[in-house]
């Protein structure tokens, strides 16, 4: 039987391993559970070893990424709550490689980024091989798999335009502002436009959607991002967030020190990151 999903973890011997959790395992906390160890790597392929390992510490499912490509305003409900008309092409911005964080890591928040801190739960694509000028008809063949992501955002550096010049990147690019995981659900047989997910803050549901509410599909996003531009293997693409962000709540629901944010995607499991305000 082929591998369906994978995690990266530290075992009881402090060795970094890849493993395959079950669909039921990813619904809860994976640390302390036993998984089958995989040989190989995400881009060359995995084989089952028949050996078991205990998850001492769960890591980001991919060790690193060259870049996070991010899509803004890509859910119809979110566009409506923001009272914005989607443009003719996707809104695109980037996060640097050091924005990556593991699924259970604390997220440190710089003192000047604490006043309007927001979450954005997002389905995240991992690219399997280099590609350029990828047609929509071939786009899904460049997808390694899908994972849960949180596009953490310091809104005080984003809004209003007089502060940011309508540029999103800085507000979203602090270290560890892009936690992903807990696993990568491999792309084979997965319809990325038919997944349910939700974002919770301290257990309270803030966002809930199906990916069929996307304005631009995964295929369209990959084709657009690769137009005249090489998408490198390991690129992580955050595909946009649904309605329910803290910015548009009344009263505002911005994150506070110690808050726990969970982003759970069907078949993938939940991120669970604690917000830690730096002094």
Note the main attributes of this structure.
mainly beta, SH3 type barrels, Fumarylacetoacetate hydrolase, domain 2, 5-stranded mixed β-sheet, 3 helices, 38% strand, globular
Care to describe what's here?
With 279 residues, this protein is mostly beta strands. The protein folds into two domains: 5-59, Roll (SH3 type barrels); 68-277, Fumarylacetoacetase-like, C-terminal domain (Fumarylacetoacetate hydrolase, domain 2, Alpha-Beta Complex), CATH 3.90.850.10. It has three helices and 19 strands. It has helices at 76-81, 161-164, 218-225; strands at 5-10, 16-20, 34-41, 45-54, 57-59, 68-72, 91-95, 100-101, 107-109, 117-118, 121-127, 143-150, 153-154, 178-186, 196-201, 204-210, 236-238, 260-265, 269-277. The strands form three sheets. Strands 1, 2, 3, 4, 5, 6, 7, 8, 11, 12, 14 and 17 form a twelve-stranded mixed sheet that branches. Strands 9-19-18-15-16 form a five-stranded mixed sheet, with no helix packed on it. It has a two-stranded antiparallel ribbon with strand order 10-13. A hairpin with a 5-residue loop joins strand 1 (5-10) and strand 2. The longest helix is centred in the C-terminal third of the chain and has 8 residues, at 218-225. The protein is globular and about 55 Å long. The mean pLDDT is 96.
């Amino acid at each position: 039987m082929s591998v369906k999903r994978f995690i990266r973890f530290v075992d009881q011997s402090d060795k970094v391993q890849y493993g395959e959790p079950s669909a039921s395992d990813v619904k809860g906390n994976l640390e302390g559970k036993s998984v089958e160890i995989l040989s190989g790597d995400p881009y060359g392929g995995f084989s089952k070893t028949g050996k078991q390992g205990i998850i001492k510490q769960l890591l980001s499912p991919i060790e690193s990424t060259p870049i996070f490509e991010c899509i803004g305003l890509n859910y119809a409900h979110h566009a409506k709550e923001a009272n914005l008309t989607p443009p003719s092409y996707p809104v695109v911005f980037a996060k640097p490689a050091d924005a990556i964080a593991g699924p259970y890591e604390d997220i440190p928040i710089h003192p000047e980024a604490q006043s309007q801190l927001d979450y954005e739960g997002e389905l995240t694509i991992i690219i399997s091989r280099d590609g350029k000028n990828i047609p929509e008809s071939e786009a899904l063949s460049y997808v390694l798999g899908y994972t849960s992501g949180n596009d953490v955002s310091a809104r005080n550096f984003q809004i209003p335009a007089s502060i940011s010049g309508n540029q999103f990147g800085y507000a979203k690019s602090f270290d560890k502002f892009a936690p992903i995981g807990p696993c990568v659900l491999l792309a084979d047989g997965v319809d990325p436009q038919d997944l349910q997910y939700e974002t919770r803050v301290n257990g309270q549901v803030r966002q809930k959607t199906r990916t069929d509410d996307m304005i631009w599909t995964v295929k369209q996003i990959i084709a657009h991002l690769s137009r005249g531009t090489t998408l490198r293997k390991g690129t992580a693409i955050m595909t946009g967030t649904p309605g329910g962000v803290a910015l548009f709540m009344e009263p505002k629901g911005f994150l506070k020190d110690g808050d726990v944010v969970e982003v759970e995607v069907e078949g993938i499991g939940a991120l669970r990151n604690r917000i830690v305000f730096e002094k």
